[in-house]
Amino acid sequence: MKRLTLLAALFAAPLSAQDSLPPAPYAYVQLPDAAQEAQAKALMETLRCLKCQGQSIADSDAPMAGDMRSAVRSRIAAGEQPEAVRTWLIERYGDYVSYAPQVTALTWPLFALPLVLLGLAGIVFRRRFARGSET
Amino acid sequence: MMEPPRKRRWWVFWVPLVLFVLFVQLVAWQLRHPAERNVVSAMIGKPLPSFTLRPAIPDRPGLAQTDYTSGKPRLLNVFASWCVPCAAEAPQLARLKALGANIDGVAIRDRQADVTRFLARYGNPFERIGADDVSAVQLALGSSGVPETFVIDGKGVIRYQHIGEIRAEHVPLLLDKLKEAGL
Description:
The complex is a heterodimer. By secondary structure, chain A is an all-alpha fold. Chain A contains 5 helices and no strands. In chain B, the strands form 2 sheets. A 5-stranded mixed sheet of chain B has the order 5-4-3-6-7.
């Protein structure tokens, strides 16, 4: 009996783990204004889907991604700047929600390190070539 | 022609080796400690955003941000009838209610008939239930899934977020958080 229940749960769970409401108004509908839609599209491609964390909300068919797209498009349609919408989401979910790299107290070494390495490589090469020309 | 043997500095050998070993250790450590998958809300410590939700079922009122200024802390449970862990946590919500917690619900992307059936089957610990059809309040709270439970203090400030279903061992923790918030 226990095994049967487990088996039933195994098949029942995925069926019920999805809502049945229609998608939010702007989840799959573009904004009528082409310029605004382009702004929204560019922004949505740099926002993380929180349900399916490797994807952007522009890529995902998760219902929550649809609701996030609708929220983004509504805000852009209401005249908000894309970066203001991004800030609104970062205030709620932290930097993790945005794919756009930010230079902060925590992340600056990522941007500084390549420059440091290039500089070091330059010094090493100069020494090598200087030594080579002596012989 | 033989070149004269060059004087090798010790660090030419050791520094890259030490860096390499450190790198391997970092990779090994990260493999054993996978990154945190839960997205913690950045709204903790901030006041509830203003919202008004219509009632999700006829026999409970809807939910608004103004319901959280009564002076007593409350639990705000984000749930859905289509969410399996939400059914699993129902007994713990009932226990929290029995222990004195005031609980409100936000039903995410749900139909009235489905919520009614869900609550009839698993029990209804909620005083108010708002219907969030486009996850607007969920987004405003910084919640990224169902179920999640927020502790809201008597002034309407978000004090604590519990991500995922409430299991038996989480009940004392949530009661502590409610007491910290002034229960």
